[in-house]
Amino acid sequence: MKFKEFILSLKDKSKRTVVITFLTMLYNFFWSIAKILLGALSGGYFFCASGVVTLLIGFIKYIFYRNHDHDSMNVKTQKSIKICILLIVIGLLYAGYMSTLFIYPQLEQYDLIVAIAIATFSFIELAISIRNALIDRKKRDTLLSALRNCNLASAIFAIVLTQVALMTAQGEDASVGCAISGIIAGAIVLIIALIYIIKLKKRQKEAMMFEEQN
Which residues make Cβ contacts (< 8 Å) with residue 95, sequence separation at least 6? Predict the structure, then answer.
């Protein structure tokens, strides 16, 4: 496909979603490796755990990228459940490493301009994630909805980063507050994943009953 044709193809939202997912997947993989290496070299558990979370998010996007055009609804449902399981692990890991701030405060310091920029982009990301999740629910594409849940999780974590940035920019001790917010964020992601697994299992059961009746 020529470059011009490729650009024109991005007018299609589904195509655009796939391309963006692929690019952010690569970013997640490379950035996660950098975090894990930095944590290993510096002896920082926080960076290693954060790197593992980023790596798992990359794998979720990989699952979507490899299976988004699969013809079998059953395969898509199974892959969606796998994504939700990874989200549960991510929620637990995120809550776990943020809880370490109670004991070992190790927050990066941000200046005010950077903090405002992070806050702006974080809220935009959250708004876009919620909007896309609501819109794509009507399509009943289980795999796309699972990806949207992953994007929503990333946006929720970005809000916690916003809190860190704003509080440290003002010279406040943000450790306890951010630890609590991180635990809550991890719990929310875990709940989102569990609810979606229940919905997927219910759809599977309904589909099986329909096949038996016919």
Answer: 182, 183, 185, 186, 187, 190
pLDDT digits (tens, 9 = 90+) for 108-133: 666 777 777 767 777 777 777 777 66
Are 62 and 25 in contact by the 8 Å Cβ rule? The answer is yes
Q: Give 207 or 10, the one with higher predicted confidence.
A: 207
Name, of 21-35, 80-94, 154-168, the range with top average pLDDT.
Answer: 80-94
Contact 98, 176 (CB under 8 A): no
Cα–Cα distance measured from residue 205 to residue 212, given in angstroms and rounded to the nearest whole number: 11
Torsion of CA 137, 150, 29, 25, to 10 degrees: 10
Per the listing, tokens 């946006």 go with 155
Please report which residue ranges of the chain form alpha helices under DSSP H.
3-9, 13-42, 45-67, 73-99, 112-136, 142-169, 175-213
d(CA 72, CA 88) in angstroms, rounded, equals 25
Q: Which of 58, 55, 70 is nearest to 25 (CA)?
A: 58
**Burial letters 21-53, b for 16+ CB under 10 A, else e:** beebbeebbebbeebbeebeeeebebbbbbbbb
- Predicted TM-score (pTM) of the model is 0.83
